Amino acid sequence: MKTRYFEYFIGPQHPGVTGNMSYHLWARGDEIVKMEPSVGYLHRGFEKLMEQREWIKNVPMVPRICVPEPDVNEILYAMGVEELAGITPPERAQYIRVLVLEMARMAAYLFYFGGVAGALGLYTIPQWTIGDRDYILDRFEELTGGRIYHIYIQPGGVRRDIPEGFRERVLKLMDYLERRLKDYDRLMFYNAVVEKRTKGVGVIEKEYALQMGVTGPNLRASGYPADVRKDDPYLVYDRLEFDVPITGDGDIYSRMLQRRLEFEESIKIVRQVLESIPEGPIMVKLPHPLEWKVPQGDVYVKVESSKGEYGYYIVSDGGVKPYRIHVRGPSMPHCFQAAKEKIVGMRIADVPVMIFSLDICPPDIER
Asked: Angle 252-276/91-119 helices, nearest 10 degrees?
């Protein structure tokens, strides 16, 4: 008797995917036998667009490469240009950059919790997390003028200083979010149904993760202690005290819990930054922005984003525009290697949960 397969399409406009992309599934009954991810529905060609613009004109473009955590692209572009140009941003600016990056990480993790919980049918959590994320966006709006795209970190420093009373408002927000985690624990992480749906499901073994290039929380959830902030410190992370939690079981629950534990560490980092930030300038003097010729050379810079190791390779031929830019986003191995292979054998209802657990960002694949 001939086996009958069913074809399913999830996305690109569907709540079961992390952004504008689609998944083509083949199933035998309720079991997935093949999966093909497909991108290209959103932003495309960032790298080539950046090669056609003067150095400073790329600052407002790069945040679009990953919408849930846009500041990561800002810092990478700034760090790359600064290293090529021999620029060291002021110490105060470096502290402010860490503050922005950790707040962005927390906002991205709140998005993540809501996505995984929504895929499980636990719709109260996304209502809570989106609301709590908005409190972080309020502080971003106060600091940068924008809620999503901040265009705040730029080569040489940051665009404006911390406003009066900002420190106290952020510390108050950290206190609130720390208390709020207990509510998430009771409803999500100590939930018997959530544990049943996620423990032992979608396991990514440590050896497989390393072989496939999995990084960030997904790798740490598989038991490997790698974090760019610790292993290759940038900005002032080497002056701050924080832990790198390791959950280790490699399943969906471990990836959720990994980010839950890291959220607490980000709160700790934000408090330290606000307590120890020095006085001083926030920007170095740059040449005329439209005539700025960055010295010839090439550089690779990397940071630890909420989704994993994020890197930029930038080449300058000594002109007013980048000669070549390549973005190494963490979502490519998480989507086209890990998800593509590990979804096979899962049930249809588990596919969106698996996808959200890997925190895949389509535009950093498309670039």
From this structure: 150
- Rounded Cα distance, 112 and 108, in Å: 6
pTM: 0.93
DSSP 131-197: HHHHHHHHHHHHHHS-SS----EETTEESSPPPTTHHHHHHHHHHHHHHHHHHHIIIIIT-HHHHHH
Q: What is the pLDDT of residue 152?
A: 95
What SS3 state is found at 26? strand
Pairing mode of beta strands 297-305, 308-316: antiparallel
How far is the C-alpha of 114 from the C-alpha of 125, rounded, in Å? 5
Give the integer Cα–Cα distance in Å for 69 and 66.
6
Residue 94's φ and ψ, nearest 5 degrees, are -65, -40
- Contact (CB, 8 A) for 312 and 318: no
Structure tokens at 62: 């790069």
Query: pLDDT tens digits, residue range 282-314?
Result: 999 999 988 999 999 999 999 999 999 999 999
- 124-141 confidence digits (pLDDT tens): 999 999 999 999 999 999
Where in the chain are the domains? Answer: 44-366
User: Which CATH code fits 44-366?
Assistant: 1.10.645.10
Look at residue 111 and tell me whether its pLDDT is greater than 80: yes
Angle, CA of 151, 137 and 65, to the nearest 5°: 45
Task: List, for residues 245-279, the tens digit of each pLDDT value.
Answer: 999 889 999 999 999 999 999 999 999 999 999 99
What residues are paired with 325 via a beta bridge?
A: 314
